[in-house]
From TrEMBL:
Keyword line: Metal-binding, Oxidoreductase, Signal, Zinc
A family per Pfam: SelR
GO BP: protein repair; response to oxidative stress
This enzyme's EC code(s): 1.8.4.12
Gene source species: Siphonobacter aquaeclarae
Protein name: peptide-methionine (R)-S-oxide reductase
NCBIfam families linked to this entry: peptide-methionine (R)-S-oxide reductase MsrB
Keyword Acetylation tagged: no
PANTHER family listed in its UniProt record: METHIONINE SULFOXIDE REDUCTASE (PTHR10173), METHIONINE-R-SULFOXIDE REDUCTASE B1 (PTHR10173:SF52)
Limits of the MsrB domain: 38-158
Record keyword Metal-binding present: yes
Family: Belongs to the MsrB Met sulfoxide reductase family.
Enzyme class: oxidoreductase
Length: 159
Protein backbone atom coordinates (compact mmCIF):
# COMPACT_ATOMS: atom_id res chain seq x y z
CA UNK A 1 0.00 0.00 0.00
CA UNK A 2 1.34 3.41 -0.90
CA UNK A 3 1.87 5.86 1.95
CA UNK A 4 -0.64 8.27 0.45
CA UNK A 5 -3.29 5.55 0.31
CA UNK A 6 -2.53 4.56 3.87
CA UNK A 7 -2.97 8.15 5.02
CA UNK A 8 -6.25 8.45 3.14
CA UNK A 9 -7.42 5.25 4.79
CA UNK A 10 -6.39 6.49 8.23
CA UNK A 11 -8.03 9.87 7.78
CA UNK A 12 -11.25 8.03 6.93
CA UNK A 13 -11.05 6.44 10.37
CA UNK A 14 -10.50 9.87 11.90
CA UNK A 15 -13.62 11.25 10.22
CA UNK A 16 -15.69 8.48 11.77
CA UNK A 17 -14.59 9.53 15.25
CA UNK A 18 -15.32 13.24 14.65
CA UNK A 19 -18.79 13.36 16.27
CA UNK A 20 -17.35 12.22 19.58
CA UNK A 21 -14.59 14.82 19.36
CA UNK A 22 -17.11 17.56 18.58
CA UNK A 23 -19.05 16.77 21.75
CA UNK A 24 -15.82 16.90 23.72
CA UNK A 25 -14.99 20.26 22.17
CA UNK A 26 -18.34 21.70 23.26
CA UNK A 27 -17.89 20.49 26.82
CA UNK A 28 -14.32 21.44 27.53
CA UNK A 29 -13.05 22.65 24.20
CA UNK A 30 -10.00 24.81 24.26
CA UNK A 31 -10.45 28.37 23.05
CA UNK A 32 -7.56 30.20 21.42
CA UNK A 33 -6.81 33.95 21.21
CA UNK A 34 -6.88 33.71 17.40
CA UNK A 35 -9.92 31.86 16.06
CA UNK A 36 -11.31 31.78 12.53
CA UNK A 37 -13.93 29.75 10.72
CA UNK A 38 -12.91 26.94 8.39
CA UNK A 39 -13.87 29.12 5.41
CA UNK A 40 -11.58 31.91 6.64
CA UNK A 41 -8.64 29.56 7.17
CA UNK A 42 -9.17 28.11 3.69
CA UNK A 43 -9.06 31.58 2.22
CA UNK A 44 -5.73 32.59 3.78
CA UNK A 45 -3.90 29.23 3.66
CA UNK A 46 -2.74 27.08 0.77
CA UNK A 47 -4.46 23.67 0.56
CA UNK A 48 -1.37 22.00 2.06
CA UNK A 49 -1.06 24.52 4.88
CA UNK A 50 -4.76 24.06 5.65
CA UNK A 51 -4.47 20.26 5.58
CA UNK A 52 -1.50 20.22 7.98
CA UNK A 53 -2.46 22.96 10.44
CA UNK A 54 -6.25 22.70 10.59
CA UNK A 55 -6.73 19.00 9.84
CA UNK A 56 -3.68 17.65 11.69
CA UNK A 57 -2.09 16.46 8.47
CA UNK A 58 1.52 15.52 7.82
CA UNK A 59 3.50 16.64 4.80
CA UNK A 60 5.52 14.08 2.88
CA UNK A 61 8.95 13.32 4.35
CA UNK A 62 11.85 15.17 2.69
CA UNK A 63 9.37 17.34 0.78
CA UNK A 64 8.98 20.38 3.04
CA UNK A 65 10.50 23.69 1.97
CA UNK A 66 12.34 24.34 5.24
CA UNK A 67 13.91 20.90 5.73
CA UNK A 68 17.35 22.04 4.52
CA UNK A 69 17.02 25.72 5.36
CA UNK A 70 20.18 26.76 7.25
CA UNK A 71 19.51 30.49 7.31
CA UNK A 72 19.41 32.38 10.58
CA UNK A 73 16.01 33.61 11.65
CA UNK A 74 12.66 32.92 13.22
CA UNK A 75 10.14 30.23 12.35
CA UNK A 76 6.65 31.55 12.99
CA UNK A 77 3.23 29.92 12.88
CA UNK A 78 1.98 30.12 9.29
CA UNK A 79 -1.56 30.76 10.56
CA UNK A 80 -1.09 33.54 13.12
CA UNK A 81 2.57 34.61 13.12
CA UNK A 82 3.29 33.36 16.65
CA UNK A 83 7.06 32.91 17.23
CA UNK A 84 7.71 29.17 17.52
CA UNK A 85 11.31 28.16 16.85
CA UNK A 86 14.60 29.97 16.30
CA UNK A 87 17.08 28.68 13.72
CA UNK A 88 19.63 28.22 16.55
CA UNK A 89 17.59 25.23 17.77
CA UNK A 90 17.25 23.59 14.33
CA UNK A 91 19.20 20.43 13.62
CA UNK A 92 19.39 17.77 10.94
CA UNK A 93 17.59 14.74 12.35
CA UNK A 94 17.62 12.73 9.12
CA UNK A 95 13.92 12.02 9.56
CA UNK A 96 12.70 14.15 6.65
CA UNK A 97 11.02 16.87 8.70
CA UNK A 98 12.45 20.09 10.13
CA UNK A 99 13.57 19.29 13.68
CA UNK A 100 14.25 21.56 16.63
CA UNK A 101 15.73 20.90 20.06
CA UNK A 102 13.52 23.47 21.84
CA UNK A 103 10.81 26.06 21.17
CA UNK A 104 11.35 29.81 21.53
CA UNK A 105 9.12 29.63 24.59
CA UNK A 106 7.14 26.84 26.18
CA UNK A 107 4.27 29.31 26.41
CA UNK A 108 4.02 29.60 22.62
CA UNK A 109 3.48 25.89 22.09
CA UNK A 110 0.93 23.58 23.61
CA UNK A 111 1.82 19.93 24.10
CA UNK A 112 -1.07 17.47 23.88
CA UNK A 113 -0.93 13.74 24.47
CA UNK A 114 -1.72 11.98 21.19
CA UNK A 115 -2.53 8.28 21.04
CA UNK A 116 -3.91 8.29 17.47
CA UNK A 117 -2.76 5.54 15.07
CA UNK A 118 -1.92 3.38 18.10
CA UNK A 119 1.16 5.48 18.87
CA UNK A 120 2.12 7.26 22.03
CA UNK A 121 3.20 10.73 20.97
CA UNK A 122 2.91 14.33 22.01
CA UNK A 123 1.18 16.62 19.56
CA UNK A 124 2.53 20.16 19.15
CA UNK A 125 -0.03 22.93 18.74
CA UNK A 126 0.34 26.70 18.39
CA UNK A 127 -0.90 28.14 21.68
CA UNK A 128 -2.28 31.25 19.96
CA UNK A 129 -4.42 29.74 17.17
CA UNK A 130 -4.51 25.98 17.78
CA UNK A 131 -2.66 25.12 14.56
CA UNK A 132 -1.31 21.57 14.43
CA UNK A 133 2.47 21.85 14.02
CA UNK A 134 3.90 18.35 14.38
CA UNK A 135 4.99 16.08 17.21
CA UNK A 136 7.47 16.02 20.06
CA UNK A 137 9.57 12.87 20.34
CA UNK A 138 11.45 12.06 23.52
CA UNK A 139 12.71 8.58 22.65
CA UNK A 140 16.34 9.72 22.98
CA UNK A 141 16.88 10.60 26.68
CA UNK A 142 17.87 14.23 27.20
CA UNK A 143 17.42 15.06 23.51
CA UNK A 144 13.85 16.12 22.79
CA UNK A 145 13.04 16.44 19.11
CA UNK A 146 10.35 18.87 18.01
CA UNK A 147 9.40 17.50 14.59
CA UNK A 148 7.51 20.16 12.68
CA UNK A 149 5.90 20.33 9.25
CA UNK A 150 7.36 23.03 6.96
CA UNK A 151 3.78 23.74 5.88
CA UNK A 152 2.95 24.92 9.42
CA UNK A 153 5.83 27.41 9.45
CA UNK A 154 6.65 30.80 8.02
CA UNK A 155 10.37 31.60 8.09
CA UNK A 156 11.51 35.14 8.78
CA UNK A 157 15.14 35.76 7.93
CA UNK A 158 17.33 37.76 10.31
CA UNK A 159 18.00 38.18 14.05
ZN1 LIG B 1 -0.69 30.02 15.32
Amino acid sequence: MKRRDLLRCLSGTLLLSLPAMAVFAQDGGKRYPVEKTDAEWKRILTPEQYYVTRQKGTERAFAGKYLNNKEKGMYRCVCCGNELFHSDAKFDSGTGWPSFSRPVSGRNIEEIKDTSYGMNRTELVCSRCGAHLGHLYTDVPGKPRYSVNSAALQFEKGH
